[in-house]
């Protein structure tokens, strides 16, 4: 009999709450913004100390990688398996495995160093 590996429950919201980067009030306000507004605001805030300039970063060139990375994190967190994550992304499972080679997604979602509390106690 084949044993199925149970996927760890990943949550970007849980991770950011444990790191004290967000709270419920922030989530409500963020939910009222469009994705375009959130990205534009983040870019503006990122360049505030540099008088609105990205020194040395070719934003247009790197933006597809940035958005794909965010989409992969979302797909992994919102599904029960990486096969399902590949379906959400509209790519093959093999391509998802290839994409993951350069990133430490499991390490990104690891919150064990932040708390001993269960997910139910946090969310």
Description:
The protein is mostly helical and 123 residues long. It has one domain. It is built from 8 helices and no strands. α4 (59-78) packs across α5. It is globular and about 40 Å long. The model has no long low-confidence stretch (mean pLDDT 83).
Give the secondary structure arrangement, pairings included.
Blueprint: H1 12-18, H2 24-31, H3 35-46, H4 59-78, H5 82-89, H6 93-100, H7 105-109, H8 119-122
Helix pairs in contact: 4-5
In short:
The protein has 123 residues and is mostly helical. It has helices at residues 12-18, 24-31, 35-46, 59-78, 82-89, 93-100, 105-109, 119-122.
Key terms:
mainly alpha, 8 helices, 123 residues
Biggest sheet features: none
Tell me the radius of gyration. 17 Å
How many E strands?
0
Please report the distance between the alpha carbons of the first and last residues.
36 Å
Could you spell the SSE succession in H and E letters? HHHHHHHH
The helical percent reads 55-70%
**Unreliable stretches covering 5 or more consecutive residues:** none
Assembly type of the chains comes to single chain
Determine the structural class based on helices, strands and strand pairing: mainly alpha
Tally the helices: what do you get?
A: 8
What is the average per-residue confidence, as pLDDT, rounded to a whole number?
83
Beta-strand percentage? under 5%
Give the number of domains.
Answer: 1
The global form is: globular
């Amino acid at each position: 009999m084949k044993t199925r590996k149970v996927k760890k429950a990943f949550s970007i919201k849980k991770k950011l709450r444990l790191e004290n980067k967000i709270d419920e009030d922030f989530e409500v306000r963020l939910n009222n913004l469009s994705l375009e507004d959130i990205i534009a605001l983040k870019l503006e805030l990122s360049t505030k100390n540099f008088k609105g300039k990205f020194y040395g970063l070719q934003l247009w060139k790197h933006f597809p990688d940035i958005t794909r990375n965010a989409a992969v994190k979302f797909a992994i967190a919102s599904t029960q398996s990486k096969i399902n994550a590949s379906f959400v992304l509209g790519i093959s499972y093999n391509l998802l495995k290839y994409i993951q080679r350069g990133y430490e997604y499991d390490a990104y979602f690891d919150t064990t160093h932040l708390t001993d509390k269960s997910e139910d106690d946090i969310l």
